[in-house]
């Protein structure tokens, strides 16, 4: 945005000795003024969010412990795996339309990095009282560097504390820029840091000071508020203040053009410059463009749904076939078990028959032997 501001209306380099930013953000304008406006001796920043201001105070007053905590978290985080899925099965689809097709089944789970983020976020939300203010602020800074960019999300459990889900978690060599933090540490020694309402901050600026006011409040129709409740009434109040303040000072007031006349009907003697800007988070897109993108996305999803339906049907057919085969196998198993029982029964009967035959054979042998003995006895009596 600095290049756009330079083109129109232009950023003045002289005529003021104090820079004030009551809705402090990333600090791009303040750094530009610091590097290009040598007459500025005093810098004042403010934000209503105490957690964001805590980060700047920690960098200003306790940078060694701040970077130490960041380095510790970074060293734990970077070696962890980002991927969170694994292939558990590959099914070949049958049928003419599915020839040479396969479906890869995956099991989705939290990656090591995402698990680390979730555990650290939970600790930040529920167990932060064990930390000193620097450790708490450094932990928040780490979460903001690895969380979903541009969003300050809260939950019922977190209250007003940061609870934004994990981002892409695709950092390779580092999570933060140590050298940049040290530059901020050096620069912040020249900065007065305030935390509170923007008007309270502005009331601390002496009327005798020549100031450059850069006001970049939460935008209208935005969900990236960083916990600031800033409605139309507050916007109107800010516009009125800027108009009065601009009489003897330089004023930049930034916001989003919603296509209406909210700002144009209120600026009076202030001039308006407009820029084409693409936002990556925190802004609702133009409704027509958004609907067009949603319609395109819907068509893609419909095609995917149809393909998935065919795949599901094929898998169901295959599952039905498997079920029939399993039933057939189960029937054969039952028959085998019945035949096995029959075989055992026949073997038992065979043993009984063999025993009976053996018994009969033994009886016959005994009778035959007895008859032989009688005959021999009779033959001996006749011979005598």
- Characterize the biggest β-sheet: 5 strands, parallel
How many DSSP E strands? 7
DSSP helical segment count: 10
- Round the Cα radius of gyration to an integer and report it: 43 Å
Into which percentage range does the β-strand content fall? 5-15%
**Widest sheet: strand ordering:** 5-2-1-6-7
State the helical fraction: 40-55%
Mean pLDDT: 84
Domain module count? 1
Net shape: elongated
H and E order: HEHEHHEEHHHEHEHEH
Distance between the termini: 150 Å
From the helix content, strand content and strand pairing, which structural class follows? alpha/beta
Uncertain segments:
none
List the defining traits of the structure above:
384 residues; alpha/beta; 5-stranded parallel β-sheet; two-stranded antiparallel ribbon; 10 helices; 52% helix; elongated
């Amino acid at each position: 945005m600095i290049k756009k501001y330079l083109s129109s209306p232009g950023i003045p380099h002289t005529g003021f000795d104090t820079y004030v930013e009551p809705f402090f953000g990333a600090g791009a304008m303040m750094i530009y003024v610091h590097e290009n406006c040598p007459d500025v001796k005093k810098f004042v920043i403010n934000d209503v969010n105490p957690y964001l201001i805590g980060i700047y105070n920690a960098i200003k007053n306790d940078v060694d412990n701040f970077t130490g905590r960041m380095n510790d978290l970074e060293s734990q985080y970077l070696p962890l795996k980002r991927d969170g899925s694994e292939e558990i099965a590959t099914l070949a689809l049958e049928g003419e339309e599915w020839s040479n097709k396969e479906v890869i089944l995956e099991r989705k789970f939290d990656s090591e990095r995402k698990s680390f983020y979730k555990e650290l976020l939970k600790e930040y939300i529920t167990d932060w009282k064990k930390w000193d203010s620097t450790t708490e602020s450094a932990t928040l800074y780490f979460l903001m560097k690895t969380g979903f960019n541009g969003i300050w999300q809260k939950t019922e459990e977190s209250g007003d504390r940061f609870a934004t889900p994990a981002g892409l978690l695709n950092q390779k060599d580092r999570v933060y820029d140590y050298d940049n933090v040290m530059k901020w540490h050096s620069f912040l020694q020249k900065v007065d840091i305030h935390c509170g309402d923007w008007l309270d901050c502005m009331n601390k600026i002496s009327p005798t000071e020549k100031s450059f006011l850069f006001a970049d409040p939460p935008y209208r129709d935005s969900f990236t508020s960083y916990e600031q409740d800033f409605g139309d009434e507050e916007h109107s109040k800010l516009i009125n203040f800027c108009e009065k303040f601009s009489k003897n000072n330089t004023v930049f007031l930034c916001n989003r053009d919603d296509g209406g006349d909210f700002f144009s009907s209120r600026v009076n003697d202030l001039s308006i410059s407009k820029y084409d800007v693409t936002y990556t988070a925190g802004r609702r897109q133009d409704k027509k463009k958004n609907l067009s993108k949603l319609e395109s996305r819907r068509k893609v999803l419909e095609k995917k749904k149809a393909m998935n339906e065919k795949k599901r049907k094929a898998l169901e057919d295959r599952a039905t076939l498997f079920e029939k085969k399993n039933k057939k196998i189960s029937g054969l198993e039952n028959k085998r078990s019945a035949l096995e029982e029959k075989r055992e029964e026949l073997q038992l009967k065979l043993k009984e028959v063999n025993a009976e035959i053996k018994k009969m054979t033994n009886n016959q042998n005994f009778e035959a032997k007895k008859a032989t003995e009688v005959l021999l006895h009779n033959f001996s009596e006749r011979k005598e």
